[in-house]
Amino acid sequence: MDKKAVLDIEHDDGDTAEWLARRRTRRHRPWPIVALALLTFFVLGTHIHLTHSGAGTQQSVRIPVNAEAIQTRCENLKLQPGPPPTFNTRKSSDRFTLGTKPTLIKNATIWTGRVNGLEIIKGDILLDRGLIKGVGPISADVLHNLDEELITIDAKGAWVSPGIVDLHSHIGDDPAPELSGAEDDNSLKGVAQPWLRALDGLNTHDDSYHLSISGGLTTSLILPGSANGIGGQGFVIKLRDTAERTPTSKLLEPPFTLNRSDAMDWSLPPRWRQMKHACGENPRRMYKNTRMDNMWAFREVYDKARKIKEEQDVYCEKALRDDWAGLGAFPDDLQWEALVDVLRGRVKVQIHCYEAVDLDDIIRLTNEFKFPVAAFHHAHETYLVPDLLKKAYGQVPASALFATNARYKREAYRGSEFAQKILADNGIQVVMKSDHPVQNSRYLLYEAQQAHYYGLPDNLALAAVTTTPAQIMGMDHRIGYIKEGYDADLVIWDSHPLALGATPKQVFIDGIAQLTSPHTVQKPESFQKVPETPDFSSEVADAIKYEGLPPLAPGKSVEGTVVFTNVRSVTVRSEEGEGVVSAFDAQRDELATIVAQSGKITCSGIKNACASFLGTPDAEFVNLKGGAISPGLVSFGSPMGLLEIQGEISTGDGYVYDPLAKSVPNIVDGDATLIRAVDGLQFATRDAYLGYRAGVTVGITAPMSGGFLSGLSTAFGLGSAHKLQKGALVQDIAAVHVSVGHMGRTPSVSTQIATLRRLLLEVGEGEVGSRFKDVADLTLVVEAQSADIISTLLQLKKEVEGNTGTVMKLTITGASEAHLIAKDLGDANVGVVVVPSRPFPYSWEHRRILPGPPLTRDSAISLLLAHNVTVGIGIEEAWSARNTRFDAAWAALEAAGDITKTQALALASSNLEKLLGLEVAAEQADLVATEAGDMFDLRSKIVGVISPRKNVVDLF
After folding, report:
1. Of 15, 585, 856, 881, which is the most buried if we count CB atoms within 10 A?
2. How far is CA 438 from CA 275, 287, 509, 549, 743, in A?
3. Dihedral through CA 750, CA 754, CA 755, CA 758, nearest 10?
């Protein structure tokens, strides 16, 4: 600001005489005194003193020495966040690491993210100084200048995409393995705390960083948890290691206000800030509040911020017109400044919010206090109220979703796999996010693959984990695209990114290759194209019509004749009942016809082999269009069948008493009792029906336990309406289940082993005694993660067999570290159910996982199979039962041919039955009909189940 303008103040006649007199007096002072006074003014003075009249009185006006800085700061309040004007001309990234050599990626198929995700370029990419320097044809002169240092990679036509971007993660704030010394994602000190910062809890020692990078993830928005209405401020990070090894060095464009420095340059536009809000169940449960209480907490703090903002606006209005009288210091409050910035539209507000009631509350809040929302997260009902989202203040919030993770609590109960498509059809931006470690961000791309499978267009599906989250977090000027001048964050894939199991060949962050000697798998040629997907138009319409709760029971159960035509392959159980074999695989156009009557196949063959059945009265005809008949799958590991909504215990059977924790009531025979899961079964749950519609026909579940002893598991049909329906119960009692692990201070692991030894070697009372004594016939299933605990269990098995002279049936489930003793497990004839099928170091006893490609050649599953261990795969939560077929397919894909298709099917069917004590004759095993492909094909859709057990064919 021009200082002359500050001093050039007009005076009326009433002040002129005194003003001139004061000037004359100053002239008569000795010059040294005047000089000293001036020096003192500039060195020590803080204000310029002038006088002016007001209503005939004199008043001293203090003009701050930093008046220009104040006015610049006030002008800054009008600016919206964004890069500085010179950003696009930068020659080097602010994150460039000295010594990083330039890299040329040749012969790539490049999905740039541009043109709404529709642009694909065949060509080269040049990376230098942390930036993308060129895309497409690269000038020979440019390459010549880099010749001595240039690293060249021939992509050989491989797909290259921008690095994966996660809009919702707790990586670092909730590090793996989880330990009490580093759980820093939630504060329990108040409902609304906008002053908290996720950065202050960002731990650099999190095993997730390198695991997630191996899945192509390059950037994450780290948000506080959702225990609070306002959990605090989030920060965008790049996941790579830095030379500084600090949380701050991971930050991407941190706000200038990070350290509240007086030396801030207020002439620059601000950078985007991030803030986490949460509504609904989480803060409600944490603070025992109602929704009314929580919304008042929001309104109260926003009103506080509004008042501060108004004070600032009044202050700046005066400062900018040089009205310094009584102005004082700039009104600011460290505790509330971030929320004031929200009201100025300078913060990307990310809101954890599920149901229409909560969404409506927040939309009203935005209009009351006039602030925009960047995205609703989880957002399970946004697809039901798209027009409501369009009423938000300022802009339409995006929806950041899971693909199929739903029904785990009340507010997620109406979640739909078709939400992404419905929202996109309504013009709402869609983001797929991980909520890491809720879902492993290493597999964030899998969320996009599932969204695409259920109807989201391929360009929007890939954008949902790249360009769209980059835009929503305010970073799309530098990440989310492969574009000249953007950060050199990209991934070279082994297949099309939307193909199941797509895995990085290399990942670059800031131009630095992240994978050392990556292990790659040669994928089929068909995986290099955008996957074809089924038509779910009718299901989409039903999701809207029934407000997220469409009927899921089989549409038709046929007891008579069903003729399946145009069948490309048939895979069935072996005659011995163990294993899976190929019964038919069509060559070229010789497709088969399969006839089922009363739920049993009565004819199969090509050409006219089943011609006599084609005229059967009332026969149902199903054209599989080159599809397949495959074994029905089995689900294990979740409480499915005993619990409808995981977060609502009243919807389930409840937990059994654990005799190692407290005494069991005598009325149930005390510690001698053994609870049977069959007695608590509930049918027709939504997860069971969704699993059934995805080819999972049988569930095996053990009583829910939070401790050592679970009880007797049972096997049941997922497609049955109730227990009395024919075929609903597959086997009343399957196996006896216990868990051995680190459960806290007590009981110790050694106490649990001692208890198990006593149960196996000493004659106990009641059903506990009789069942544990019968270890030769009844399988003992032990949940254990640590290789040390599993080793002890193998020793115990040997001890029991030596003392009893019988061969003990032992199966290990969980088994995160089982690969470390794969040979020992094979030698001991002990099978393993890997839960989940793709490992993660959740806790200390999970930490030594075998991650699989691209980090290791072998996966845990392939290594165990190589040592002749019978392996099955399981799930942790009931919602994921529907994805079992993709889990099995993925296991085969990353095994580089070591696991055949029939072996992969066995992982989720016959192997599980064998390991968990289920005895099913081959002729009684369910078969699943898929249209347009087999069980492992993203083109395919389950259209029916052939069930000898129920004597029907269920059609969907």
Report:
1. 881
2. 19, 22, 24, 24, 20
3. 170
